[in-house]
Amino acid sequence: MTDNRNTILAVILSGLVLIAWQYFYNVPQMEKQRAQQQAQTELQKTTPQPTASATPGAAPQPGGAAQPATPAASQPQAVVSREAAIAASPRVKIETPRIAGSISLKGGRIDDIALVQYRETVDPKSPPIVLYSPSGTAEPYYAEFGWVAATGVTAKMPDAQTVWQQEGSGSLTPSTPVVLKWENGDGLTFRRTITVDDHYLFTIKDEVSNVGNAPVTLYPFALISRHGAPQVSGYYILHEGLIGYLGDEKLKEYSYKQVDEAKQVNFNNVTNGWLGITDKYWASALLPDTNARLQGRFSSNPVGKVHTYQTDYLLDPVTVAIGGTATANARLFAGAKEAGVVGINFPLAGLGGYNKALDLNHFDLLIDWGWFHFLTKPMFLGLDFFYRFFGNFGISILLVTVIVKLLFFPLANKSYASMAKMKSIQPQLQALKERYPDDKVKQQQEMMEIYRKEKINPVAGCLPVLIQIPVFFSLYKVLFVTIEMRHAPFYGWIKDLSAPDPTNLFNLFGLIPFDPTTIPVFGYYLALGIWPIIMGITMWFQMKLNPTPPDPTQQIIFNWMPLIFTFMLAGFPAGLVIYWAWNNLLSVLQQSYIMRRNGVKVELLDNLKATFARKAT
């Protein structure tokens, strides 16, 4: 009795600790973050921003490693709307099946990109996702390419204030490149040819011709600049921030906070590398030639109260002889992290994408597959395979669950057979409790003797749960990080498999105009949709098929477990809850069949059949 009382007390105290943690820590932290975000937004609306020639977006400078440029003197400009900033400079339109935007002729920047195939919400009429925005807006984000003069070179170079001229006319499309030109007046002519494919890859060819009176040494550079830290998901299993795979240094990931603390991180003499900035679903990355040697850098520069994050590289110098021409090639990925476009490096069943087509160095890691990529990658590949046939990721989840059950069928059969034998000896175990009511040691000894005679492994019942854990985690990871699952619908009310079930029992599934999840402290625990309820019911059926634990406290815990899991999983992605419910249902059918084959009565199903039969008559 004392042990049981202590167990129940521990459960109650644990619940109180969780509630206290939610009330005294999580809620204040959420309010603090909300206040900080609101304050930053207001600050960006009212505080003058630096012009493009200030430190943000400054080209790296030669000299060992990439060094920050000295800010140029400039007058601050007030924050303007994105539309006003775009209209303020001459531009060349970008028109592809996936991208709408423009290139600014002032500075030659790619600073206006919207991803037309992706919307902010599940409503197809909602605005498209904006990736890049010009300098001067509330959230500038852009890519810039060009040349940096070597020490001692006095020739004027194109910068963020340079206005380029377009040769010819027309928009940038997959079939029509754009050529920009600028002359410095001292014998140097700069020409930039920009091409784009039908996905998210820009190719930039910079040429400089010298008809002056002296050779000129220049360094090619490329950069991506982002003003202000964006709102991130904040989950440990997902990286958002600066990222790169830098030759022998391999994968480097820095969160915005880590870059703020480091100020600047240099990567010297790197070959076969790439670097950029990644969000959960979107990314921007510089992809230099794989054989080029570069000086790479991650940096954070405070401009007023806003930090500017930059990832850039500087290539080896080239000398342009009199009458000669030098060329530098660069590539930019700016778009959605679609697995088929980015690529998946996996034996036999991988997807090529840019990773293979451009012979890049682990570019597939732009998608955060995590430490357990050997599970998450095949999980996604399986889902994607069935999606190509049925056009619905919900159906894919159901079919992949069936395949997983088939793969582990022999192991699960042994486990369920052992559990069936456990069920059959329940009367003997109950007799032991009555024979030795006060001698638990004797009970355990006699119980183990029965297990030995009947060849029962009492731990075998844990195997189905242990098998499910890695499958559950890999599916959760895939649902969370892959854009293919974003806004992927199922049937009925599920419009987004990566989001929780939108229905809620506590407002009668929408009949009452009230959102229970907004209630302080307890609101998080009041998200209980239809699919979580279905999952809880299937789990209850499965638990009823298992042998009854001999200990009363364990019986209480097992009886309450379906309800606890129902509330725990209610806030998880709907795709994950659907998987769990479907897996439970398959387990019930499999376990019932094995129990009958081993001569064990399935009382729960027999009682249900009898009930339906009586109602039918």
Structural account:
The structure is a single chain. With 617 residues, this protein is of the alpha+beta class. It is built from 15 helices and 19 strands. Strands 6-7-8-9-19-15-14-11-12 form a nine-stranded antiparallel β-sheet. Strands 5, 10, 13, 16, 17 and 18 form a six-stranded antiparallel β-sheet that branches. Strands 1-2-3-4 form a four-stranded antiparallel β-sheet, with no helix packed on it. The radius of gyration is 31 Å and the shape is elongated.
Strand arrangement in the largest pleated sheet: 6-7-8-9-19-15-14-11-12
Mean pLDDT across the residues is 82
State the helicity in percent bands.
Answer: 25-40%
Largest sheet: 9 strands, antiparallel
Distance between the termini: 47 Å
Poorly predicted sequence stretches spanning 5 or more consecutive residues:
1-11, 21-27, 29-37, 39-55, 64-76
Beta content: 15-25%
Q: Write down the overall geometry.
A: elongated
Q: Please tally the helical runs, counting DSSP H or I stretches of 4 or more residues.
A: 15
* Class from secondary-structure proportions: alpha+beta
The overall strand count is 19
Rg, please?
31 Å
Observed structural traits:
six-stranded antiparallel beta sheet; 617 residues; elongated; 38% helix; nine-stranded antiparallel beta sheet; disordered N terminus; alpha+beta; single chain; 19 strands; 15 helices
Write the layout of secondary structure elements.
Blueprint: H1 2-46, H2 82-87, E1 91-95, E2 99-104, E3 109-119, E4 128-132, E5 141-149, E6 165-167, E7 178-183, E8 188-196, E9 201-210, E10 216-227, E11 241-246, E12 251-255, H3 256-262, E13 264-271, E14 273-278, E15 282-286, E16 293-303, E17 306-315, E18 318-320, E19 325-336, H4 339-342, H5 353-357, H6 373-390, H7 393-407, H8 409-424, H9 426-435, H10 440-454, H11 463-481, H12 530-545, H13 552-569, H14 574-597, H15 603-616
Antiparallel strand pairs: 1-2, 2-3, 3-4, 5-10, 6-7, 7-8, 8-9, 9-19, 10-17, 10-18, 11-12, 11-14, 13-16, 14-15, 15-19, 16-17
Helix pairs in contact: 6-7, 6-11, 7-14, 8-14, 9-10, 11-14, 12-13, 12-14
